[in-house]
Amino acid sequence: MFEGRRACGGSLEPLNKKAVILPTRKSVFVVDDDPSMLASLKRLLRAHGFDVLGFGSANELLGYGQFARAACVVLDIDLDGQSGIDLHRKLLTMGVTAPVIYITGNDTRANRLSAIALDCVACLTKPFAAQALIESVERACAGVT
């Protein structure tokens, strides 16, 4: 039986018939201004063993600042009057290269083209299947060491 959390890039080490995950300090960052959606996403990702940090706004994420801890970022495109796509651009100018998975309830051609132009891992339209998010996060984490 294995216990613990997986962090992107983490490994399992056997210890007394149990395994522990060595900390890698990599977490999935989730940014969504809807508190219930943020809580649901965090709960889903944690249930699948990921370490998760949640942020309710672009400013909250920017204020946190510890971007080296991000294995990937799950980012809502519409953030309470702010654009998740613009936030991604800002992160890139700051040298943050963590892979991004966009989520949106407003799937427009313009949003999708902008997301693709920024080389996102995925762009998921709400409501999306839980497995679609999990698979996208796993793909994003595959390149993290």
Order of helices and strands: EEEHEHEEEHEHEH
Give the CATH class.
Alpha Beta
- Widest β-sheet, arrangement of strands: 4-3-5-8-9
The fold-level CATH name is Rossmann fold
The count of β-strands is 9
Oligomeric grouping of the chains? single chain
Q: Label the CATH architecture.
A: 3-Layer(aba) Sandwich
End-to-end Cα distance: 24 Å
Task: Tell me the Rg in angstroms.
Answer: 15 Å
Structural class: alpha/beta
Tell me the CATH superfamily: Response regulator
Return the domain count. 1
Helix content percent band: 25-40%
**Percent strand:** 25-35%
Helices, by number, come to 5
Mean pLDDT: 86
Structure description:
- The chain has 145 residues and is α/β, with parallel strands linked by helices.
- It has a single domain (25-141), classed as Response regulator (Rossmann fold, 3-Layer(aba) Sandwich), CATH 3.40.50.2300.
- Helix content is 35%, strand content 26%.
- The strands form three sheets. Strands 4-3-5-8-9 form a five-stranded parallel β-sheet, with helices on both faces. A two-stranded antiparallel sheet has the order 1-2. A two-stranded antiparallel ribbon has the order 6-7.
- Helix 1 (35-47) links the parallel strand 3 (27-31) and strand 4 (52-55).
- Mean pLDDT is 86; it is low at 11-23.
